[in-house]
Amino acid sequence: MQNAEEYRKHAHECRTLARQCKKDEERNQLLLMAKTWTSLAEEQEEMAAKRARNRLLTPGPAVH
Predict the structure, then answer these.
(1) 3-17 pLDDT tens trace
(2) What distances in angstroms separate CA 46 from CA 13, 15, 29, 60, 64, one per listed residue?
């Protein structure tokens, strides 16, 4: 699984390519891909934050 930083890098690459496109259809497709990569990055960050919260809330093994 990739991390959010890698997803954002892919989004940036798509936007860079979109600026170079002469055809609207190709540009729009790349911008849609960038939006999807950004959404994946946000989801990844949310999942990581939930995992971190769960680790804080889950008690460790009891020591007797």
Answers:
(1) 999 999 999 999 999
(2) 23, 23, 26, 23, 36
